[in-house]
Description:
This protein is an alpha/beta fold and 137 residues long. Helices cover 36% and strands 15% of the residues.
Amino acid sequence: MAFGTQDDTDEVMNEINMTPLVDVMLVLLIIFIITVPVMKHSVNIELPRASSEPQDAKPETIRLSVDAQGQYFWNEQMLAEAELAPRLRAAAARTPQPELHLRGDKDARYEWVAQALAAAQTSGLRKIGFITQPKQP
């Protein structure tokens, strides 16, 4: 029996196999043929219109301070503790609702600051921030 020579089977194939490339291209062609008619039929929707005018209604800022003796100050005016809750409720009822900036003296008892914070939360104020002084280097 004669066997073929090894030289015939060991040759390097230097041609590109085009069959997988043609298959992929045909699949892409079919996908585009199907999707192009779908893209032409669009849904008409009514989009909202935006205005480029700046909004003038900025909420007021209320500065509520607590000093070292436990006295409250509403925008730098002394305020009795009994007047705090009614003023906070009136501020919460306004539209737009004002921002409350709560400042506590570093020597003030935490209890006084916590009472002011609790009164602001129960009155319905949503924008409450603490004002601190940055640490000096």
